[in-house]
Structures are given as C-alpha cells and as structure tokens.
Amino acid sequence: WERLSGDTEHQRDIPHSDSVYTTGQSARQITCTARVSNLRFHPRTAVCVSATEKVFRVCSEAGVSSV
C-alpha cells in the first residue's frame, strides 16, 4: 500500500483486515458446502455449488422468478 498523506497505520490496516475477513467467510462457506454436499475432496466443485446457491438465493430474495 502506498502511504497517503495523513494516513495512520490503523487506517491502512482497515482494507487489509476487511479482505482477510471476507476471504475467511468465503472459505467457511465453501467448506460448509463441501461438507453438506459430501464433496470433501472436490474443492472446485464445492466452489461452483456455493456460487450457484448464492446466485439463486440472491435472485429469490430479489423476487426474480425466471433464472
């Protein structure tokens, strides 16, 4: 990260901590999907299933019926 004028160490750590949190959440979701779908040794498949479930969940919540 380039240091911007007026930035403190804490301010520069905020984007890093957010990305670590988001990555951790994604990893937990993929692990849960793999466990529920019995895909223990197929991480790529678990990622695809997880992403597909997320798309359908968002479309459902938005009221889109023809996906």
Provide a short characterization of the protein structure:
Residues 1-16 have a biased composition (Basic and acidic residues). This protein is mainly α and 67 residues long. It is 72% helix and 0% strand.
Which stretches are poorly predicted, pLDDT < 50 over at least 5 residues? none
Our measurement of the CA-to-CA distance between the termini, rounded to an integer number of angstroms, reads 40 Å
SS-derived structural category: mainly alpha
Number of strands: 0
**Mean model confidence by pLDDT:** 79
Hey, roughly how much beta strand do the residues contain? under 5%
The biggest beta sheet is recorded as:
none
- Helical stretch count? 2
Shape: flat
Instruction: Tell me the radius of gyration.
Output: 18 Å
- Please trace the helix and strand order, writing H or E for each element: HH
Determine the fraction of residues in helical runs and give it as a percent range: over 70%
Query: What is the count of distinct domains?
Result: 1
